[in-house]
Specification:
Radius of gyration: 31 Å
Number of strands: 2
Number of helices: 7
Shape: elongated
Structural class: mainly alpha
Number of domains: 3
Largest sheet: 2 strands, antiparallel
Distance between the termini: 72 Å
Order of helices and strands: HHHHHHHEE
Length: 214
């Protein structure tokens, strides 16, 4: 059997593995048949390896993806992965198209500009926030027009979840830009003999306590 797809090649290797397992588990059952099974397993492995083998070790391109060799016939994909500018252009087109389909084109790009998005990840987050914001307000507007209180509540609850999603995205952006660090201020309250409270503060990073253990 000569495989024509990678899936068939992997199945062939599994069959070869199964044949070897049978010979290993029953070595004295039929020595002649075992010999043929082992030869057939070698042939199956060779046929599978011939299809799975790459003409050369592929280089790593944009996003950590492997650049497909030209021999595989993925010329467009090869060019896109090898040249980051082509990938960035296509990604930008897709972001624009998706934002427009959500009806949040202006909101999305205004949000990305407002946060001064530094990379594609932040731009995508800004677009998601804009889309969630628009959907939430659309639902609130529909809720206000409803006379059915049950439907009104359903729409309002869905809008509330979207607004919560928006706020979580804002926190995600803040954590990403701060490196996940938090500043904790620990205050010490000391009462002096004259019943006056003296408050002192110490700052720590990442929630660590001050040296005196408080």
């Amino acid at each position: 059997m000569k495989p024509t797809t990678t899936a068939e090649a992997h199945l062939l290797k599994l069959r070869a593995k199964g044949s070897r397992a049978r010979v290993r588990d029953f070595p004295d059952h039929n020595p002649t048949m075992n010999c043929w099974d082992l030869r057939a397993a070698d042939d199956m492995d060779a046929a599978a390896d011939a299809l799975l083998a790459l003409p050369a070790i592929p280089e790593t391109g944009t996003g950590g993806e492997m650049v497909p060799p030209k021999a595989l016939g993925h010329i467009g994909t090869e060019d896109a992965v090898r040249r980051p500018d082509a990938v960035e252009l296509q990604a930008s087109i897709e972001r624009v198209t998706l934002a427009d389909q959500c009806g949040a084109f202006n909101l999305a790009f205004d949000a990305a500009e407002s946060i001064k998005a530094r990379n594609s990840t932040e731009r995508m987050l800004a677009h998601q926030m804009a889309a969630a914001h628009k959907a939430a307000l659309d639902l609130l507007a529909k809720s206000a027009q409803q006379r059915d209180t049950i439907e009104q509540a359903r729409l309002a609850n869905t809008a509330a979840r979207l607004m919560d999603t928006y706020q979580r995205a804002m926190l995600t952006l803040a954590r990403t830009r701060s490196g996940g660090k938090q500043t904790v201020v620990v205050q010490h309250v000391q009462v002096a003999g004259g019943a006056q409270a003296v408050i002192t503060g110490t700052g720590g990073v990442g929630g660590r306590l001050s040296e005196n253990g408080t």
